[in-house]
Amino acid sequence: MFSSVWNFVKRHKRKFIFTGAVVGGVYFLGKYARSKIRELQEKEAIEYIALARRQYHFESNQRTCNMTVLSMLPPLREAIVNQLNSESLTAILKNRPANKMDIWEDLKIISFTRSLVSVYSTCMLVVLLRIQLNIIGGYLYLDNSVGKPASTPQAPPEVQQQYLSSIQHLLGDGLTHLISVVKKSVQNSLDGMCLKQSLSLAELEQHLNWIRAEVESCRPLSSYMMADDDNALADQACGLTESDVLTIRLLNETRDMMDSPDFSAVLTTCLQRGFARLLDNLAQFFHPPPGDSAHNADPHSLLTVSLPLAKIIPIVNGQINTICSETPGHFAQELLLNDDVKEFAANVYDSFSTPQEVRQ
Q: Which pLDDT tens digit goes with each residue over 9-67?
């Protein structure tokens, strides 16, 4: 019996060897595959956790952006009012001065100028802070990444403070230059228009478009947002410190972002939305005459309702309190929640939260 079994094994030896090799190979292959699947699952879990952490950090950073914008609106409003003080003119008018018409002319120019400057500067503030805080946010994410080798932080607190202080240009010299350009354009558009002249909402929109075209063709809007001098810190410091070098790099990276087509597109979107909201606010005061059934029946007839310029001036003059309001009203909300602004912010954050070796 044993000899028959042995003879059978000898005759089919190759088959047994092949079958054993196959079975063993399948076993080890299965074991290898299971280990690789486990490694892949662990890697995917790590990547998912990192992605979730990064997403959470980004969303937290956007909330910080929103709160920072709202906190900057009162200082912006104060800076505009200080340079375009219409309140002093209205106080003088109450005393019926002899040069009343001259004061009304000044009030007309100042009222329109400060409302337009409010729209421009608020839109600029929203987009500029989106860039700055997402650059810092991206670097902070890298500085605090798990498993990151110890190195010099790219955004230490003193650098953040120095870098973010550059926003003062928009509230200072940049705002002064913007006011000068807008005021000149307002004068070109409205100079000589008497107080009794009536304007419809459509005509008012046309004047605003003329002013915008002149302002935006004068010089790049980014020049009002950041100083031109790349070496401003170097001029102020007696030898550059490490913080100065990091701050200058952040400022130059911000300028690079502001030179991009995406920046121009997002700022244009904000301005379009901002001036549309300004007109919506003004439209609330253009009511058809009582009992005019023809106007009340046609929703588009509001564009033909006219008001004397003397009545429009106070309405325009008060818009700064709505535009530059820290209370999230329609104006601020529409800018902060705009999809293009959100996408732009995500792209900036993504660029600066990605390790440099990966970016390259």
A: 456 555 545 555 555 555 555 565 566 555 555 555 444 445 567 777 788 889 999 99
Alpha-carbon torsion (138, 143, 148, 150), positive or negative: positive
| Residue corresponding to tokens 């440099």 | 356
Where residue 108 falls (left for φ over 0; alpha for ψ -120 to 50; beta otherwise) is alpha
| 43 vs 329: CA distance, rounded Å | 45
Question: How many residues are there in the chain?
Answer: 360
| N-term to C-term CA, the chain | 74
CA 257, CA 251: separation in Å to the nearest integer? Answer: 10
Q: Taking a C-beta distance cutoff of 8 angstroms, is the pair 234, 337 a contact?
A: no
The packing angle between helices 242-258 and 100-143, to 10°, is 120
Tally of CB atoms within 10 A around 296: 14
| Secondary structure element (H or E) that encloses residue 306, with its range | strand 306-308
Strand partners, 308: 198
